[in-house]
Input
Amino acid sequence: MAKFGILVLAAGQSRRFGSDKLMEKMADNQPMIAHSLEPLLILAKQFQLELCVITRADNQPLINYLITAGVNYSLCPDAHLGMGHSIAYGIKSHQNWQGWMIALADMPNINLALLTTLLEKIQCNPNDIIRPAFTHNEKIKPAHPVYFPQQYGFQLSQLTGDKGAKTIIKQQKLVTQLSGEKIGEYILMDMDTPESLKLQGMNYSA
Output
């Protein structure tokens, strides 16, 4: 299959969290961003995929971390206007990719098993939107990361505001199981508040 790349969205303001959540220390004293990036970086290395973190220019602690960790990043000038702008910027900056896996930087429970399963699904369905999903109250809830094939590039590049790519996704293939078991909701949880960290038994320092 043609090579796609991974965009990691890390340009949010963390308003609900109350502080820079991506640099918040976890139980092992590593920042949240380290946990979110680790499986993505492993996947990228294993399959020779490009990866780029999209962030904003005023988040110097995060930029310093990415530089020290040797992680490729790009600064979105309109990040403060919402996720749609970050996605559009990322797409425009990587138009040569044959598809884009868009991941969120505040999902530290994502693991390599999930990403590998997604990759297998992408390889079998390279022209479809692919994303994981979990079951909550007997309803299937789509989550991230989301893979978009190249034919959605123009639409993604025109996104604005804070609604992300929801308006583009009409049909999608959902990955709901890992090794025959339902994907645990905790794996696909994004950490919007300090309470969400506590629910996962992680160490939050106020």
Summary: The mean pLDDT is 88. The domain at 5-199 is CATH 3.90.550.10 (Spore Coat Polysaccharide Biosynthesis Protein SpsA; Chain A). The longest helix spans residues 32-46.
